[in-house]
Amino acid sequence: MAVSKEQKQLFAVKIKPYKSTAEDLKKEISTMRAVARRNARIEPYFLFKIAVLGIQRANTLVLMSRLSQEIQNIKNDSYLNDARRELNSLIGDLMKVVGEDIDGTLTENQELLPLIAQVSWEQRLHLCQGFKESIQNVKNAMGESSKWRWSFPDMHMRLATLARNLLDFKAYERISKDPSHDDYRPLQEYFQFMMEESQLAAQEFRTKYELSTRDVSDLQKIQRIFEFQKKIYSFSGQKEELKRVSTSLDNVNEMIESLIGGKKDKDKDKSRKK
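-> structure tokens emitted (274 positions)
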């Protein structure tokens, strides 16, 4: 159905304040990046502020697409993809500060954590929650049929990895034994977020595998997530959760071995026929 002249005019009027907000945020982010690059010591803190602004910008872009949908009955994919790229870039910037690996030891990035020592556990939690909510907003606005639908499992895995590497496991081990500590509750909530987000990432990859790719690499990412979860539950002494994730990991390992074994058999058959 064609968009009427009246719809276009109404949209042009209504979108103005949102466009202005998105542009102002973009300019502020650009200015802050330039300042941050001039001082390596404070750059990580600037990146946290930039992430907050970027999440606000991504959410504004989602609202702009919704406005287009409501007024013109057109979902604006360019706004949504811009939001998706913004979030991916922000997560990547922070991962460069605290580590990009989900597979290493829990104290592997210990020397990086002092770079963000002044960022409280509540601030880290709220940032990660903001990322998750914004990612979900973009995903929901794009819909299940979007050509970018299967980019979201990786986004959730990257967020889970960021949450893992923002956490000081030595501090967590110490504070988790002292319920009277001021950081006890924020750290408990943070730990729960990290595990829920990693589980969501695993579910997303399973859905991607079953509905789209049938690619063993998606199962291998689930394998990495479950291995991470197993390490965490062993560290925290959560025996029931450890048992559950160990069973899930065994199942995924069997699937991977079966698929790789089946591929090898097919390759041998092709080689014989030649």
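The two ends are 55 Å apart (CA to CA).
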